[in-house]
Amino acid sequence: MPDLFKSLFTGGMYSFFQRKYTLVDMTGKVAIITGGTSGLGKQSSLALAKMGCHVFIGARNKDKALAVVQEIKQETGNDNIEVLEMQLDDLSSVKQAANTFKSKGLHLDILMNNAGGCGAGGKTKDGFQTAFQVNYLSHFLLTELLLPVLNNGRVINVSAWGHKLQNKIDWNRVRQDDEDGVNERALDNYADTKLCQVLHTRKLSQLHKNINSYSCHPATDVWRNVYAPIKNMMTPFFTSEKDGSNCQVWLAIAPELKNESGEYYFNLAKDTPNPLVNDQAVVDEYYEKSREFVAPFLDQ
After folding, report:
1. Averaged over 115-131, what is the pLDDT?
2. Do the beta carbons of residue 145 and residue 298 sit within 8 Å?
3. More exposed terminus of the chain, fewer Cβ within 10 Å: N or C?
4. Which of 21, 136, 190, 227 is catalytic?
5. What average pLDDT does this structure show over 226-254?
């Protein structure tokens, strides 16, 4: 079944085809979920909290995050829910968030790099196209900084089928300024970020045998920042946020995945990624470029 059709087929109007995961006792486990105040991130935070996990909600808006924390505590009875402030459009803020977590002396079992979307324009203070930094580069830095506390943990990169649209990564485009916000490059920018997430997953599996890494396609609405004609056309084909979060939650908890790493998943099953993921030269180039971009913020 073609990838795009497969994605749409298991989306909103066919959500009853979504596979379900088995609950696991996560008491004593610790997770960080970026973008945890809404959408997939909020649903993932809620799901893990229900299983007893200690959840840190990565968020840019502290007041909004505190409200979500209280909501989750009331619904689950789990008081181990906290806010981890971070601005993904500011690499120094990401480093500060990583240091804040490490200062708590906790082991990290799950890092869910979830935050992101399609259509974010402009350029960050660090000099990168906003979608590239928010969707991917800040998550790369966050992961690198948290590796010391991730021994035997899991990294879940929430990607999308859109990563299959690219036949290369345009390293010049990631520094281009989309002055008018959403424009004709929005889909390319988005696909770049999602491809980088899948390449990141593969490289992590090669470099760190003590960490399991996974990427996935959630089949939910990432088009909230895109102009109305595209948003209105695509939104009916995406599943609910609750169902859409199933795959990333499953990747975080499933015992059967303990010895799998570096793979891409869709609807709770292994799926075929972009062929570039199997090109070692591309994987290596991507990693070297990413390290170069965040070098000033890495722990020395």
Report:
1. 85
2. yes
3. C
4. 190
5. 65
Region of residue 214 (left: phi > 0; alpha: psi -120 to 50; beta: else): beta
Structure token digits, residue 156: 């879940």
Q: How confident is the model at residue 163 (pLDDT cuts 50, 70, 90)?
A: very high
Mean pLDDT of the chain: 86
pLDDT for residue 3: 52
Pick the residue with more confidence: 284 or 238? 284
User: Is residue 264 annotated as part of the catalytic site, yes or no?
Assistant: no
The answer to whether position 59 is within a domain reads yes
Mean pLDDT, rounded, for 185-196:
87
Write a three-state SS string for the chain. CCHHHHHHHCCHHHHHHCCCCCCCCCCCCEEEEECCCCHHHHHHHHHHHHCCCEEEEEECCHHHHHHHHHHHHHHHCCCCEEEEECCCCCHHHHHHHHHHHHCCCCCCCEEEECCCCCCCCCECCCCCEHHHHHHHHHHHHHHHHHHHHCCCCEEEEECCHHHHHCCCCCCCHHHCCCCCCCCCCHHHHHHHHHHHHHHHHHHHHHHCCCCEEEEEECCCCCCCCCCHHHHHHHHHHCCCHHHHCHHHHHHHHCHHHCCCCCEEEECCCEECCCHHHHCHHHHHHHHHHHHHHHHHHCCC
Containing structural domain, residue 236 = 3-12+27-293
Residue 125 falls within a domain, yes or no? yes
At 100, which CATH number? 3.40.50.720
Least confident of 133-142, 197-206, 232-241: 232-241
User: What pLDDT score was predicted for residue 219?
Assistant: 60
Query: How many domains does the chain contain in total?
Result: 1
Instruction: Flag whether 225 is in a domain.
Output: yes
Q: In this model, does residue 16 exceed pLDDT 80?
A: no
Give the model's pLDDT for residue 95.
98
